[in-house]
Amino acid sequence: MEEGRMKILQMLSEAKITAEEAAKLLDALDQNSETRDTQESQGKETRSKLLYISVHRKDSLDSKDVQIKIPTAIIQSGIQFKSFIPKSAREHLGDSIELNGEEFSFNDIDKEQMDYIFSAMRESSIDIETERATVRMYCK
Q1: Which residues contact 115 (CB under 8 A, 6 or more apart)?
Q2: What are phi and psi for residue 106, nearest 5 degrees?
Q3: 72: how many CB neighbours lie within 10 A of its CB?
Q4: What's the pTM value of the predicted model, to 2 decimals?
Q5: How many other CB atoms are there within 10 angstroms of residue 120's CB atom?
Q6: Where are the beta strands (DSSP E) in 4-129?
Q7: For residue range 38-83, what is the model confidence (pLDDT) as tens digits?
């Protein structure tokens, strides 16, 4: 964790980020550290470890099923990554996406909501049936 702090301070000293952005990044590091410490002290993992996506094609006898395993930590890292993107860049990206008719905001991405979704997907799955394939998403 100390390496992350030094990197942030170095970026600040090189004027690659503002003091406000550095403070946000340091807060994010502290929160991540506190969460990890709490989980370790409880002696259990509170989140799902993998998001599974399986695709079974129905239209061919020789087709192979596809099984994708995505570590949920990668998804969570992506959510935390938004704090590294300067506010003006997030706004510009959001405006560009809206020009294409889609609504999107980095502020809508919330770690607690993702934890809730992963937790719910441990108890059930999302199943999509079509004439050609079955897609199933779940967490373990």
Answers
A1: 46, 47
A2: -60, -30
A3: 19
A4: 0.47
A5: 13
A6: 50-57, 66-71, 126-129
A7: 555 544 455 568 888 888 887 766 666 888 888 888 877 777 777 7
